[in-house]
Amino acid sequence: MSVTTSGPSTAEGNATLRPGTLGTADISFFVVSAAAPLTVMAAVAPLAILFGGIGAPVGYLLTGITLAVFSVGFTAMSRHIRNGGSFYAYVTRGLGRSAGIGAALLALVGYNGMEIGAYGFLGSGTQDTVHALFGIDIPWLPVSLAGLLLIGYGGYRSIDFGAKVLGVLLAAETAVLVLLAAGVLFQGGAEGLSLHSFAPGNVLVPGTAAVLALAFAAFTGFESTVLYRREARDPARTIPRATYIAVGFLGLFYAFIVWTVIQAFGDQRVVAAAGADPTGLFFTAMTTYVGAWAADLMHILIVTSILASLLSFHNAINRYGLALAEEGILPRVFTRVHPRHHSPYVVGIAQTILGAVVVLAFAAAGADPYTHLLIWANTPGMIGLLTLQLLAALAVPMFFRRIRHQEGVVRTVVAPVIAAVLLSAALVLVVTHIDLFTGASATVNTLLVGIIPATFLAGLVLARRLRTRRPTVYEGFAAEPPAESDTTSDNDDAQRV
User: Fold this and answer.
1) How confident is the model at residue 491 (pLDDT cuts 50, 70, 90)?
2) Helices 140-156 and 292-327 sit at what angle, rounded to 10 degrees?
3) pLDDT digits (tens, 9 = 90+) for 466-485
4) Is residue 488's pLDDT more than 60?
5) pLDDT tens digit string along 251-274?
6) Secondary structure, 3-state, the chain
7) Which residues lie below 8 Å from residue 254, measured CB to CB, with a gap of 6+?
8) pLDDT greater than 80 at residue 149
């Protein structure tokens, strides 16, 4: 059985991505791992508490609700689009080819920014872990380069291999946070357990805007479920389920863990504790309520959490690159799929080389792996992915206006419009609070934010060139592949009027 390509071209040779490989749990592992829950909690949640006070957990709940509303229209559209290009295919079908090509470039910049920046975090995080456990200082660059090779190998192997690895790593990082929560709840916290975090007076504070900005960044990657459509079992059901599971799990889990850490220090003292030692807040709580051994374990699992996130983003980039090569946008050599592992290995090799070049360039410039490589690469990446979510939300009602379908108005109009409004507000919050992410000067922040509109504009220019010089590629961009023998009935009514 073979799988169709996402565009007008076909992959070189007979090898294709392996269809029917991933179930709901597998895809959920990929997208939740991209968010790196343990790393987000230990490294970022203390800042949310510092800025938003004890009402910080609600910020994560509100973000989860916003993305759940977005997912209503997003997953409805996923039942009608079999193209493997994810965001850019959705934007193209709703807003036109020029916007779709702009979205394609945004996706490449966004996902590459998220992955390549995290190699700096891997280096600095491993440095911190080794120093905390053994008192030894190690250089970050060899660690980052070793990580590039390890993740490159993981992407080279089959997708089910990656799913198994991510399942183990995600279970481990989730378990250590549950262990912390259990210790706090069992001992009743510092001042007794309370629900004051959810009182309106503690939520409606000036710092809530900053909490929401940090919270939206914590969900990055959840939308990549649709990238695995060609490898999913029964994608019309698997993709929506995995999307809702990812959003629901992250929203509830983040809020619960942040609330338990607040209980660990007490409503009256947690903000001061977060201000005094934000990077050590979770480790102090773990040592107090579980033991020093658990804090040491958390140090180790933060490193594996970063590795899991890297592997997830690497697989997502590989599939974007494959799809764009099949469209004729990227070189045709990137359409090659490994005959044994059924992985887009040439794209993976190219992405690994690109990551190595960027990492080595930052190292040669004497840049810090965290404050420069991670922050400067991740920030435009995160803004780019949030922008893609907004464009996809805008595309949903426009798409459903053009086809015959049996979806309800709530899925095709109401939810997408609400999501677009909420995502617009989220994007404004992130951009206006960009200093929380970077700690950089106004000039640097302007440049980092400016990468996103510049990339989209470059996509519009590319679209214009394709329309005049390569009209066949332009006209076929994000087109539906030929009908599959195992396609779902939902696709039958998705033909354009």
Assistant:
1) very low
2) 50
3) 999 999 999 999 888 776 54
4) no
5) 999 999 999 999 999 999 999 999
6) CCCCCCCCCCCCCCCCCCCCCECHHHHHHHHHHHHCHHHHHHHCHHHHHHHHHHHHHHHHHHHHHHHHHHHHHHHHHHCCCCCCCCHHHHHHHHHCHHHHHHHHHHHHHHHHHHHHHHHHHHHHHHHHHHHHHHCCCCCHHHHHHHHHHHHHHHHHCCHHHHHHHHHHHHHHHHHHHHHHHHHHHHHCCCCCCCCHHHCHHHHCCCCHHHHHHHHHHHCCCHHHHHHHHHHECCHHHHHHHHHHHHHHHHHHHHHHHHHHHHHHHCCCCHHHHHHHCHHHHHHHHHHHHCCHHHHHHHHHHHHHHHHHHHHHHHHHHHHHHHHHHHHCCCCHHHHCCCCCCCCCHHHHHHHHHHHHHHHHHHHHCCCCHHHHHHHHHHHHHHHHHHHHHHHHHHHHHHHHCCECCCCCHHHHHHHHHHHHHHHHHHHHHHHHCHHHHHCCCHHHHHHHHHHHHHHHHHHHHHHHHHHHHCHHHHHCCCCCCCCCCCCCHHHHHCCEC
7) 37, 40, 41, 45, 57, 60, 64, 215, 218
8) yes
Q: How many CA atoms lie within 13 A of 312 on its CB side?
A: 30
For the chain, give the mean pLDDT. Answer: 90
Residues with Cβ within 8 Å of residue 133, at least 6 apart in sequence: 296, 299, 300
Residue 390 has pLDDT above 80, yes or no: yes
Q: Please list, in sequence order, all residues whose beta carbon lies within 8 angstroms of the beta carbon of residue 3, skipping any fewer than 6 positions away.
A: 16, 17, 18, 19, 230, 484
Question: Would you put residue 306 in left (φ > 0), alpha (ψ -120 to 50) or beta?
Answer: alpha
Q: And the tokens for 35? A: 């968010």
Spatial CB neighbours of 237, under 8 Å, sequence gap ≥ 6: 24
From CA 291, how far away is CA 281, in angstroms rounded?
14
Structure tokens at 126: 């491993």
- Length of the chain equals 497
Q: Give the pair of three-digit tokens for residue 191.
A: 């001042």
